[in-house]
Amino acid sequence: MKKGDIIELSIEDYAFEGKGVAKINIELEGEIKKFVVFVNGTYPGDVVKAEIRRKKKSYAEAIVSEFIKKAPERISAKCTYFGVCGGCKAQDLDYDTQVKYKADQVRDVFERIGGLSGFEILPPLKAPRIFFYRNKMEFSFADKRWLYPHEISGENEIVDRNFALGLHIPRMFDKVLDINECFLQSEESNKILNFTREFFKSRGETIYSTKIHEGYLRHLVIKQSFFTNDLMVNLVTSESKPDLFKEYTDSLIEIIPGITTIINNVNEKKSQTAYGDYEIIYHGDGYIFDTIGDYKFRISANSFFQTNTIQAEFLYKTALEFAGLTGEEVVYDLYSGAGTISIYVSVKAREVIGFETVDPAVEDAVFNAGLNNIDNVNFVNANLDKSFLHFLKEYKIPAPDVIIADPPRSGMNPKTVNDILTLMPPKIVYVSCNPSTQARDIKLLCDGGYRLVQYQPVDMFPHTYHVENVALLVKD
User: Fold this and answer.
1) Would residue 433 show up in a list of annotated catalytic residues for this protein?
2) Catalytic one among 88, 182, 433, 446?
3) Domains in the chain: boundaries
4) What span, in angstroms and rounded, lies between the C-alpha atoms of 426 and 428?
5) What pairs with residue 456 in β-bridges?
6) DSSP code at position 112
7) E strand or H helix at 451, and its extent?
8) pLDDT band at 216 (very low <50, low <70, confident <90, very high)
9) CA dist 195 to 138, 186, 207, Å?
10) Which residue blocks in 256-406 are alpha helix, DSSP H?
11) Whose CA is closest to 388, among 359, 366, 360, 420?
12) Is-same-fold flag (6-72; 136-291)?
């Protein structure tokens, strides 16, 4: 087997990150052994002809060149860009089957990769809404538009090849798929996307280049509330152009009067991040509000808020149930963001202390506690990639009975794990959007004296391979 070979494969399994798995017999060192081939865009039950794209010692990666037989759970994808855009990789799969595969993959990560055992696996919580469920979409500008094969091979001149606003092609940081419709957020979001593209194209505005580090336009971020009528437009640029942005603001509000705030985040750094060194508010107060359960939250342009508002309540309910609070506990909320978990569990706790590194998020958290008349929650601005233990002495913070952690996809820093093992609270509730890093961290915690009791998958992101997972650990 070598790169470029086309072979027939029967897909038997489904791997984490959304790839079908085929196993074939090969002769290796004089013995017949099973060799794994990962085939992008396939599901168990598919029979395909696949082209080998990468060949390693123990596995290969391939793409489909022809379907011989399709899995019975396949359906027609709703989106025009399916198969090119990297967002909804499983939109052509029945939703119940999507959830089953996600649950299987979490189990596999914990048992096989994490080497964990003896815990309870709760049935996954399905999403009540599988389209238009996101409250935030982040679009990118690019001076290289993704070109379709027919454009490249055609005789006609390629139009607008140097201006795109949409979503990144997987594994291609410099190319963006120009889209005019996405089924993940809302119709208003699509209108904002298309208006923004045409407005700046018509004015010949430049796009920031990651090669020469020049150009104006960088990102368009849209945040939309589910339980209020708030709608935020946040345009990230490399510099401030007040006159142009004022014209953009006035024109956008005229087309979509329901927008409640418009912000310009100015990112002067070379890194392509969708937040700025400073922000300028051109319309509204720079915030939106939404609710989770009985609580209302203020969300700024740069603070974290769970992307699926409806499912967030089920996620937090699970975390609260796992914590088993009686009203007497001191709870630490690590990576507390805008204070959503801290405030949600506060009704059952004696005191909650949230630790967060992003300044605007801490400001939002403090505001949100006041907004909800919560007086038993405090927030500390702490970089959790470094030890946070010195803050306990500095602010005379009592030792925790429960730690709730909801880190980013990269998981917890080893220093944070060590801090938790130093504190050794009776319970840890670990909320994660990446079961792989979660299992890694939980293995370290279990090696340090904890036992994994149970976990609960929560599907926050239909049609993707992403899944949230809540795990309960107790001191052994």
Assistant:
1) yes
2) 433
3) 6-72, 100-130+308-475, 136-291
4) 7
5) 470
6) I
7) strand 450-458
8) very high
9) 15, 14, 16
10) 309-323, 340-346, 359-371, 389-394
11) 420
12) yes
Six-digit token pair at 263? 């912000």
Asked: is 136-291 a CATH 3.90.600.10 domain? The reply is: no
CATH annotation of 100-130+308-475: 3.40.50.150
- The distance from CA 151 to its chain's CA centroid, rounded to whole angstroms, is 32
Pairing of strands 120-121, 450-458: parallel
Would you say how long the chain is, in residues?
476
Whole-number Cα distances in Å, 132 to 55, 192, 297, 416: 38, 15, 21, 36
Q: What local confidence, expressed as pLDDT, does residue 173 receive?
A: 72
Give 286-333 pLDDT, tens digit per residue: 999 999 999 999 999 988 889 999 999 999 999 999 999 999 999 999
Closest by Cα among 79, 37, 13, 9 to 464: 79
What would the pLDDT profile of 89-143 be if each residue is shown by its tens digit? 999 999 999 999 999 999 999 998 789 999 999 999 999 999 999 999 999 999 9
In this prediction the pTM is 0.92
CB 91 within 8 A of CB 78: yes
Q: What is the CATH number of domain 6-72?
A: 2.40.50.140
Asked whether 431 and 319 are in contact (CB, 8 A), the reply is: yes
State both tokens at 45: 């039950």
* Amino acid sitting at position 190: N
**Listed residue (450, 336, 350, 355) closest to 401, CA to CA:** 350
CB 141 within 8 A of CB 220: yes
Distance (Å, whole) CA 420 – CA 432:
16
Strand ranges across the sheet with 120-121: 120-121, 450-458, 468-475, 427-432, 402-405, 330-334, 351-356, 377-381
Alpha-carbon distance 123 to 456, whole Å? 7
Q: Which amino acid is at 328?
A: E
Tokens read off for 460? 């926050």
User: Which of 457, 453, 429, 464 lies closest to 104 in space, CA to CA?
Assistant: 457
Determine the pLDDT at residue 26.
Answer: 81
